[in-house]
Amino acid sequence: MSAPRVGIVGCGLIGQKRAAALGGARLVACADVDEGRARALAARAPGCRAGADWRAVATAPDVDLVVAATPHDLLPAVALAAVEAGKHVLVEKPAARVAAELEPVAEAAARRGVRVRVGFNHRYHRAFRRLRALLDEGVAGPLLFLRARYGHGGRVGYEQEWRADARISGGGELIDQGVHLIDLSRWLLGDLPHVQGLARTFFWDMQVDDNAFLTLRTAAGQVAFLHASATEWKNTFSLELYGRDAKLQVDGLGGSYGTERLTLYKMLPEMGPPETTAWEFPMADDSWAAEMAEFLEDVRLGRPPSAGLADAIAALRVVEEVYRQSGPLRPGRR
Amino acid sequence: MSAPRVGIVGCGLIGQKRAAALGGARLVACADVDEGRARALAARAPGCRAGADWRAVATAPDVDLVVAATPHDLLPAVALAAVEAGKHVLVEKPAARVAAELEPVAEAAARRGVRVRVGFNHRYHRAFRRLRALLDEGVAGPLLFLRARYGHGGRVGYEQEWRADARISGGGELIDQGVHLIDLSRWLLGDLPHVQGLARTFFWDMQVDDNAFLTLRTAAGQVAFLHASATEWKNTFSLELYGRDAKLQVDGLGGSYGTERLTLYKMLPEMGPPETTAWEFPMADDSWAAEMAEFLEDVRLGRPPSAGLADAIAALRVVEEVYRQSGPLRPGRR
Amino acid sequence: MSAPRVGIVGCGLIGQKRAAALGGARLVACADVDEGRARALAARAPGCRAGADWRAVATAPDVDLVVAATPHDLLPAVALAAVEAGKHVLVEKPAARVAAELEPVAEAAARRGVRVRVGFNHRYHRAFRRLRALLDEGVAGPLLFLRARYGHGGRVGYEQEWRADARISGGGELIDQGVHLIDLSRWLLGDLPHVQGLARTFFWDMQVDDNAFLTLRTAAGQVAFLHASATEWKNTFSLELYGRDAKLQVDGLGGSYGTERLTLYKMLPEMGPPETTAWEFPMADDSWAAEMAEFLEDVRLGRPPSAGLADAIAALRVVEEVYRQSGPLRPGRR
Amino acid sequence: MSAPRVGIVGCGLIGQKRAAALGGARLVACADVDEGRARALAARAPGCRAGADWRAVATAPDVDLVVAATPHDLLPAVALAAVEAGKHVLVEKPAARVAAELEPVAEAAARRGVRVRVGFNHRYHRAFRRLRALLDEGVAGPLLFLRARYGHGGRVGYEQEWRADARISGGGELIDQGVHLIDLSRWLLGDLPHVQGLARTFFWDMQVDDNAFLTLRTAAGQVAFLHASATEWKNTFSLELYGRDAKLQVDGLGGSYGTERLTLYKMLPEMGPPETTAWEFPMADDSWAAEMAEFLEDVRLGRPPSAGLADAIAALRVVEEVYRQSGPLRPGRR
Fold first, then answer.
1. Were both Cys, which of A95, A334, B215, D305 would link to A312 (CB 3.0–4.6 Å)?
2. What span, in angstroms and rounded, lies between the C-alpha atoms of B115 and B113?
3. Is B222 helix (H, G, I), strand (E, B) or coil?
4. Distance (Å) from the alpha carbon of B113 to chain C's nearest alpha carbon
5. Which value does ipTM take for this structure?
C-alpha cells in the first residue's frame, strides 16, 4: 500500500502538531478559516495545497484520511462530511460539544465502513504506555480507584479565547482538560456510569467553568476522583492509580508540565514503605506520532481504534451530566 | 498562678505524646485500662500516680486539666465527667463517634464555665502555622478552593485494630484521618454546609470504610475536595489551597509522611510560571507542644479554644452525612 | 544622556542573546564573519546596519559600546580595537585564550579611561543575586568553602565545533564552563592563589579537555572544590557554599539545566537538621539584561565593572596553571 | 555445620548493629570497656556472656568469629589476637589508624589460614548492590570517572568525642567517612595509585580534620573526585559514576541521609536528555545483614572476603598520603 494521503482541517497549534507527526502518511491538503495559517502549514510539506474551505479538504478525492483539528463546534461536521466521503478520520478530543452531535458520525462510520479515531493522545504518552505495560504484566493486581489532578495556570486574555465561548467550546475546563481525565479513567477502569460532579467558575470572567470536581464510579464500584482546573497557577498533571498490590503514578506531561515520570510503588508482604521504581521521560513528547502510527495500523488492519467515537460519546455524557448537576457555575450566586 | 495539674486518661501512643508535650503544665495522674501502660507513663513524671480507673483521674480534686486520649467511644464520657467536675479538657479528635454525643459535653462546659479544646493538632504543625501567617498577610487574596490528600499505607493486622470496630471507632478512615482534612478545610475556608461524599471499603476485610472521597462547599461556594485513604500504599499528606493571587501547598507531616514543607506559588501579573518559595521543616514535630501551650493560654485568659467542641460537632456532622449518603461500603455489592 | 549606541561583534547565539537584552541601549551596528547572520540580527533593530568587517563596527564613530561575542581567539583583538577607539566594551567570558592576551587591553582601557566588563553572566542569575543579598545580610557567617559541579551532556558532533579546536578556544571544558565556576568562586571567596587541578579528555575525540577537577584555595585557606564536565550526560549546575552558620545552594540555571533554585540551610543552635528555605525561579533567565543594565550604570557613573578585566585575567591564570599541571590530557597515555 | 559462634568486641552503636544482623550466626560472648554496655547487649542473646576483657572474647575457645567494633586504636590489636587464636574476624573500617598496623594482622591471617573481612558496609547497601548488578550487565560501558560527596552536619559536642582525638582515631573526617568513599572508589574503579588531597579543619575546635578534598586516579587515568565533610550542615551522601554510555548515581543512605536511591541516566544515540530510571529503597538498611551473610559464605567456602585487609591497607595508604600532603590542618595558619 502506498502512503496514506492526509488532509488536515484546522491549522492551529494542534493541526501543526499533527502535521509534524504523520509518520508513514503524507500531507496533501490543509484548510483553515485563516488561510494564511493553512498556507504556512502547507509550505512544510512538498506538494501540499492550502485553502479556506474545510469541506473541500474533508471530501477531496485524493485524501484518504482526514484530521479534524478545529474548535469544538466544527469537529463533528468535519468528521461527518469526511466519513460520508469515505475517509478515515482522526478527530481531536472532545470530538464535539455534546454526545448527541457524534451519533450521526458513528452511524455514518458504521455504514461507510471507515475508521474514526478520537485524539485522546494522553493514552499515548510514554509514561502511560509504560503504565499500561506494567498493568498488563499484572504488577498492580485488581484496580481499586484512581485520583487525578490536571490543570494550568491560565494566561492573560484566557477569558477572551474561543474556549471561553460556550457556543463554540461546549464548556470550559471540564470539556477541555477534564475530558482527558475522564477518558484516561475509562481506559484504566472501564465505564463510569455513576457520576457526581461539580463545575464552577471561580476566577475567570467568562461564561464557562474554570474548575470541575468529579467523583465517578464503575459498575464494580471502583472510583475515579478527578479535578481539572484552569486556576491551578502552576501547570500540573498527576494521575495516581491504586491496585491491591501496588500504586502507579504518572506526573508531568513534559514541557511546562514538568518532566514526565512514572512511579511504581510495589507493596511488600510486610507492608510499610513500598519498593519504589521511577522512570523519567525527559525526551520530546512523541504521543502524537505514536497515536497516528497506531491509527494507520487500525486502518490497515480494519480494526476499531482504541479511542473511538464510543469513547468520546461516553466521556461527553459524563461531561453533560456534571454540567446538569452543577447548576449555575458562579459560586455563591445561586 | 502555679503550674496547671494535668490528668491523662488513655496512655497509648497519643497519651504518651501528650505527656511529653505538656510545657508549663505538670502531670499528676494517669489512667489506662491497661494499668501497666499507665504505670509506665507515670514513671516518667515525678510524683505522678497511675491507675485503671479513668473516672478517678477525670474527677480528681488535684487535677485542673484532663487530657482524654482514649479510643473514640470513651472520649465523650471522659470529657463529660471531667467537665462536670469543673476541669478544663483537651479531648482528642474526633472527640466522639457522632456529633450528638458531644452536645451534653458542650452544654455542661457552658454551664460550668470550663474550656474544652479538641485535639485537631494538624492546625499546629509548623507548615500550617506559617501558612496561616502568610494568609493573614494577605499573600493569597480571596480563597477559591482547596484540595487535599491524606492517607497511609496500612499495616499488617490493621483490620484487627479497634479502629476497624465501628462500635468503638464510629467509622473508618473518614473519621480517623479524614476528620483532620474536614477540620483543616473548615479552619481555612469556614463552615461547609454542602456535603457530597462517598465512603468505601476497597481492601481491608473490615466493617468500616478504608477510603472517603468528599466534595464540600461553603455557603459562598468555595470547594474542599478531599480524599482520605487507608490504602494509600505510601504515607502521604498534601493540602493545596488556591487563592486569587497565589497557591499555598503543604506536603508531609514529618516522619514517615516525609519532611514537612510549605510552598508558596505567587502569581505574577504576566501569569506564566509563578514565583515559588518553599520552607522545609525537618525538625521534630512540635504541634503537640504548640497546641497545649495555646490551650494553657486559653485557660489562663478564659477565651474559647480555637478548635473547640463546636468544631468537632461540625466535622462529625460532615462525617455522618457522608456515611448516610454512601450506603453500603463494599463496592459492587449494593 | 541619550541611549548608548551599541555595536555587536559576533552574531551567534550569544550575540543574539545580547541583542535581545540591551535594555536602555540601542543596537546600531553588528558584524559577523557569516554576513547573513549579521543581517538577520540587524533586521531585528530598526536602523541597525550589518556587515562582515568586525573592525568597522568596533571602531565606528556612532558606536559608544561594543559587545564582543566571537570565538575566544578574536575576543581580545576586538576588545583592544574598541578600547583604542574609545569605546566601552562588554567582552564575553573567558575574554581571551590566555591571560597575557588581556594585558594590552587592560593597559589601553586604563589609558583611554573606558570601561571593560567581562560577561561572567552567572553572577547575575536570579538565584545568585538572591544568594548575594543573603550573604550581605550575614545569614551564613564567615565562609568556609564551596563545592560546585557544572556540566553538559554533550551533543552529537561536539568534537567538530570550534570549541574543540585549541587554537581558537584556548582549551576545552575548563575554559568554557569551568571558567564560570572559577569566577563564581573568586566572586564569593576572593582570590585563589593556591591551585591544584587536573584536566582530562575522557570521551570526546578532540585535542582539548572534556573534564577538569580543581581544588583552589584563598590565602585565608578557604577551598573551592570544582568540577566542570562535558561528559555529565545530564545538564547539571550546582554550587554549594558553606559558612559557619549556614549552607547556601544554587541548583539549575533554567532551561535544560532545570529550574533555578536557591536553598538556604540555616543551622540551629541545637544542630541536627537545619531550617530550610528554598526559592525557585521558573521565570525566563534575565541575567543578560541585569548584567547589561549594571554595565550601563558602570559607564554612566564611571565606576569599574564588578566583573572586569582583572577578574578575567585571574580566572585565566587559574586555567593556565591547571593545564600546566595536567600534562597530557589523555588518561592512561602518559 | 552448626551455626558459627560469634564474639563481639566493642558494644557501642556499631557493635549493637552487628549483634542485630548476625543472620545464621550466634552471639556467645561480648566485651566492652563499659561492662554495663556489654551486659545490655548480651541480654539480647540467650546464653551470651559479657565482660570487660576484650582479649577473653577474642581468644575464647567457643568463639569461631570475632567482630571488632572498637574505636580505631584498638581494632588491629583485637583483630591480631583473634587471628592468632585461629578466629575469623570482621573488623570495622578503617580497621586501624595507619596501614602499618594491619601488616602483622595480614601476615598472621595468611599464616593461620583464617578470613578477615573489613566492614566497608556501604558496598552492601541496596543501591550499591543494584548498581553493581547494572554494571555487570554492561549498562554503563567503560567507566570514566566518579564524583562523591559524603558528610554530616555535626552534633553538639562533636569535638569532644573520641573521633576528635587523633591518638585514638588516627584522623578526622577523612579516616571516618572519607575512607568509605575511598573504598567505594577502589571497588568501582580499581586501585588509585595517584593521590592529590587536602585535609582541613574549618569549623570544629579539634586537632583532626573536618573536611577532606581528594582527587585520586587509577593507573588507567580514571578519576575519583571526593569530598568528605563534617561541616556539611545537612547529612548528605551522593556518588555519581560516569561511564561511556551512562551515568549511575546513588543518593542517600536511608535515615537522616534521606531515602536511598539509585538513578540510571542512559545516553541515547542522539544524545540530549538521557532516559532515566530510578529505584528507591525506603526499606530499612540491610547492609549489615547482607555483609555478614556474605562473610559467613566466605568462611564456609574458604574464599577471600571481597573487602579484606588488602583493601583497608590500600585505603589507609591514601589517607596517610593525603595527611602528608596537607600539612597543618588549620587554614590560614600555616
1. A95
2. 7
3. coil
4. 41
5. 0.95
